[in-house]
Design a protein that fits this description.
This protein has 281 residues and is an alpha/beta fold. The chain has a single domain (14-267), classed as Carbamate kinase, CATH 3.40.1160. Helix content is 36%, strand content 16%. It has eight helices and ten strands. The strands form two sheets. It has an eight-stranded mixed β-sheet, with helices on both faces. A two-stranded antiparallel sheet has the order 6-7. Helix 1 (33-48) crosses helix 3, helix 2 (60-67) packs across helix 3 (77-101) and helix 5 (161-171) packs parallel to helix 7. The longest helix is centred in the N-terminal third of the chain and has 25 residues, at 77-101. The structure holds adenosine-5'-diphosphate and ligand VHF.
Length: 281
């Protein structure tokens, strides 16, 4: 790990943005319309600049809770799946409406991890991504929460969009994953429990020592905590891709990140090799 405040050489053309529930739902349970609108504005602007953008959005269960005026996430998986199905349709409706406002089309992809493990389903999904991106349409991805376990005993896992976004970044050969959370970046200890925690600006290697700094989730809606974000970053660093973890309280931070400003935590291999990508770097 090393600290640096210099501008970053972030040269990305195909970008995945992952937004967590905590950036879409207020702690009160109300929907954060401002963030949904700003996210639509920023991503539409990037498309207008010629970038290719994929959005991985959580929030189905959070929006489902809101729709049914529930304050607590139910314990049973089936009840959570039902909530996700209610919330997902509302969430995509809100995204459609806001993106439409900025003249941007979107398409919805509900995925499970194992889709990428099987050559045929993987190819089908990648074809869909490619076709949407070619047509300058933003794929909006969430985990398919109503398919927790299927008959074929695939290794479907419920509720972790951090790693799903890393898989999507990797499989679509994207240059950069921007992960928006409820925290400014990766700290040397859980800032929620330790006010003296310090932000780490750059991480170039992830090992057990790094994982030891990570605690669990912050908000009552979040699921993964820092461990799943580090697993995502580890995968991407190993593939010589980049990830920036930043605060999603204002999605316009995405512009700052792409301008190379030192916001959040930049996960990048120290010496990045050229990767075959879709434009620059
Ligand atoms: N070392 C750490 N640095 C930053 N955040 C940490 C760390 N360890 C644990 N956390 C917690 O992880 C939370 C973010 O994960 P999570 O609640 O799952 O958010 P999201 O909904 O964005 O996925 C932070 O709010 C923070 O409380
Ligand atoms: N797929 C679920 C949430 C999955 C998830 O990883 O949530 P989060 O930790 O907020 O990114 C949903 O849409 O509610």
């Amino acid at each position: 790990m090393q600290d640096e405040q210099l501008n970053r050489n972030i040269d990305a053309n195909r970008i995945v943005v992952k937004i967590g529930t905590s950036s879409l739902i207020y702690p009160s349970g109300e929907i954060n319309l401002r963030n949904i609108d700003q996210l639509a504005f920023v991503l539409s602007s990037l498309c207008n600049q010629g970038k290719q953008v994929i959005l991985v959005s959580s929030g189905a269960i959070g929006v489902g809770l809101n729709q049914l005026s529930l304050t607590e996430r139910p314990a049973s998986i089936a009840a959570q799946q039902a909530l996700a199905s209610i919330g997902q349709s509302k969430l995509i409706m809100m995204f459609s409406q806001r993106f439409e406002h900025y003249g941007q089309k979107i398409g919805q992809l509900l995925l499970t991890h194992d889709v990428f493990d099987y050559p045929q389903s993987r190819q089908n999904v990648l074809n869909t991504f490619d076709e949407l991106l070619q047509q300058r349409i933003i794929p909006v991805v969430n985990e398919n929460d109503s398919v927790a376990v299927d008959e074929l005993d695939h290794k479907t896992r419920f509720g972790d969009n951090d790693q799903l976004s890393a898989i999507v970044t990797s499989r679509t050969n994207s240059d950069l994953l921007i992960m928006l959370s409820d925290i400014d970046g990766f700290y040397d200890m859980n800032p929620l429990k330790n006010p003296e925690a310090a932000l780490i600006s750059q991480v170039s290697q992830i090992n057990q020592e790094t994982f030891n700094l990570a605690g669990d989730k912050g908000s009552r809606f979040g699921t993964g905590g820092m461990v799943t974000k580090l697993l995502a970053a580890e995968r991407l660093i190993n593939e010589n891709r980049q990830m920036v973890l930043a605060n999603g309280r204002d999605p316009r931070v995405i512009f700052n990140i792409l301008d190379g400003e030192p916001v959040g935590t930049w996960f990048t291999a120290l010496q990045r090799k050229e990767i075959s990508s879709h434009g620059q770097s």
